[in-house]
Amino acid sequence: MHTPVSLNIMDFGAQPGGQAVCTQAFVRAVDAARKAGGGTVYVPAGQYLTGPIQLYSNLRLYLDAGAEILFVQDKDQFPTVSSRWEGVDRPVYMSCIYAENAENICVEGMGTLNGQGAYWWELQRAHTLPFPRPKLISFQSCKRIVIKNVKLTQSPAWTVNPIDCENVLVDGISIDNPANSPNTDGVNPESCNGVRIQGCYISVGDDCVTLKSGTEGAAARIPCQNITVTNCVMAYGHGGVVIGSEMSGDVRNVTISNCVFHKTDRGIRIKTRRGRGGVVEDVRVNNIVMDQVNCPFVINLYYYCGPGGKDKYVWDRSYYPVDARTPAVRRVYFSNITARDIRSCAGFVYGLAEQYVEDLAFDNILVMLGDGFDAEMPAMLDGIEPMTKTGFYLGNVRDASFTNCTITGAQGPAFYAENGEGLVFTNCKAKNCTGDELVKKVNVKD
Question: What's the pLDDT band for 435 if we cut at 50, 70, 90?
């Protein structure tokens, strides 16, 4: 009969204090657990300095309260692996915690993983890295993953990035990266199936949670699907929950519920562009409170960041033939959302001239536009001006309904729509708005 093992890294030569490099102690402990058929690598209270840690099937890395793993600030101690970086397959530095083609992996406990990311951020800003930075935790092509309760801080790049994984639980973790740290997203499932993100606190230097499925340059088109995000607090990131812009493999079957977004740049954000192809569909967002965000709802099919983003094909508002390069967004539903002290506009939705955003619903929505904020860009799209105290801005939208929606404090109409059809407004209100019209339509068919 197999007896589960629990292996204390101190018994394999690890020295607390955060000065001695303990990489080989972690390697020996992991190897011993593998030879036993699985078990727990136990990290007691104290600071431990190490290089990246590779995990394997049937292993649990457990950080006790007071334990902190510090990752070395030396790129030469990070080997390269073949993985994805911003949606494209390429060599990258191994993540601080890494596994590939494994199953039954757990990282948990009340301890801390500290990526000591400032070292990597400076190299990134200096453009001196031969390979993309390591993530703090990344699992590639793995099944049945649990990341629970740990605190994650100072990530070199994205913090948690499962890629092509199945059955992933991210539960009760805290992520704290400085607001000015570059591309330190919180939790980024990429081309994954069956992900539950719940009970987390996330404050980062980029998007808090982002769902991705690769770019047009990825070797395989693998969807990101069957995802839930619930009972989380998102703070100070660029977006609360974001889909894209890497979505060429499709993103579908997503629910986001019972969350608070505090001072994120955007709330719910879907972004893509011509050339990516792919579909975002069947997204439900319910029971959300937002405060002091730039724009609560953004759907933008002219997103211009990244390679090729400045090409005319991307930014041109003219009609182009629909083909495999044309992205689509459809069947997105928002309900029971309060957004107060909003900095730019109540919502910004802009589809392509040839591929409208379609089948949207906003039900029981209250947006209170704030006072005293400087004008900001609600979305990254050429040709629009910075906004403040602006209502919903809708362009190239088909079959959208707004029911029991209230906009307060807009300077102008509560809803402005151009180039659309099938837009329905039921029991909507404008309070303390300066416009003469609740809804202003330009080239919109009923």
Answer: confident
- The answer to whether residues 79 and 43 touch, using CB atoms and an 8 Å cutoff, is no
What distance in Å separates the CA atoms of residue 129 and residue 183, rounded to the nearest whole number? 15
Are 107 and 136 in contact by the 8 Å Cβ rule? The answer is no
Q: Which of 151, 199, 206, 158 is nearest to 178 (CA)?
A: 206
Query: Strand (E) positions, 351-431?
Result: 357-369, 390-395, 397-408, 415-426, 429-431
d(CA 36, CA 38): 6
Are 99 and 105 in contact by the 8 Å Cβ rule? The answer is: yes
CA dist 231 and 256 (Å) reads: 9
433, two tokens: 């708005």
Is the pLDDT at 61 greater than 70? The verdict is yes
Taking the complete model, does pTM exceed 0.70, yes or no? yes
- pLDDT for 163-180, tens place per residue? 999 999 999 999 999 999
Tokens representing 30?
């992991």
CATH, domain range 5-445: 2.160.20.10
Q: Residues with catalytic annotation?
A: 206, 238
DSSP letter assigned to residue 10: G
Domain regions of the chain by residue span: 5-445
Fill in the DSSP letter of residue 218.
Answer: S
